[in-house]
Structures are given as structure tokens and as C-alpha cells.
Amino acid sequence: MTPIISLLLLLFHGLVSVALLGAITHQLVSLLAPAPAGNNRFLSRYRRTHASAYSRAVVALYVFNFVLGSVLYPEYRLDARYALEEMQMHTVVSAFELKEHWSAIGLCLLPIYLRQWNSAGSNARLSTILLTTIVWFDFLVGHIINNYRGL
Predict the structure, then answer these.
(1) Whose CA is closest to 66, among 21, 26, 100?
(2) Considering the domain boundaries, does residue 50 fall inside one?
(3) C-alpha dist (Å) from residue 38 to 27, 41, 44, 51
(4) Which of 62-71, 117-126, 127-136, 142-151 has the lowest mean pLDDT?
(5) Backbone φ/ψ region at 69: left (φ over 0), alpha (ψ -120 to 50), beta
(6) Count of domains in the chain?
(7) Domain residues for 81?
(8) Is 101 a domain residue?
(9) Which of 29, 84, 111, 116 is the most buried (most CB within 10 A)?
């Protein structure tokens, strides 16, 4: 893969990550802290959204982002990881290994998450909290590692 293609894919991967992060965070806030009726402030409108409307978008964004990451992964594995290991940055490499594992766990969690959101009367809090935590962790670790990779 040419460097410009991989850079464009990495930027697109980051943009999809931000969209996923926004959707799942918005869903979690509206699920855990619903807004009182009648209040028309910004935070109340933010919390008043229909949380279940985000479930399919979250799943689609997660899968699409996972596929983009999988396309970019061989380049990281072959180029950036060895450079980080040569610079004795084992903590950074280990953090990316954790990111890989949590991403796979999140992918396996998606059917449960979607089923809970589509079932009437089902409580989707736990799966939403777990998936939101995974998405935030993956985003932060990926962003930090990308900064180290630029060294």
C-alpha cells in the first residue's frame, strides 16, 4: 500500500472513530441521564434524544471502523511496531495489543448489544456502558499510539 493511501485510510479511520464515539456517547448519556420534560437548554436537548435510534448506527460504524482498522493493521504490524520496539517503547506496543483484544471483544458484544436495544422491555445499560468504554479506550489508545508512531 502506498504511503498516501495508508495516510488517507488512517485519516478516514480516525473520522469514523469520532463519529462512532459521538454516537455511542450520545446514546449512553441519554440512557443514563434522561432530561426532564420542559427544559429546553442545550444539555437537556442533548439528553432528550431517542437512545434506541442510535443502536444500528453504532453497530454499522463499529463494524466499518473495525474493517478499516483491519486493512491498516498489517502496515502497523510490519513497520511501526518494530520501530516502537527498537526504541524500547514496550508500553506503547502493549497498549496497542490491549486495544486489539478489546476491539475484538467489542465486535463479539455487538449482537448482544443490538438484540437488547431491539427487544421490547430489555435493559441495554450494561452492554451500552461496556461498548462505550471499549470505544473510548480504543479511541484514546489509537490516538496516542498514532502520535508515538509519528516520532
Answers:
(1) 100
(2) no
(3) 20, 9, 9, 18
(4) 142-151
(5) alpha
(6) 1
(7) 3-20+55-149
(8) yes
(9) 84
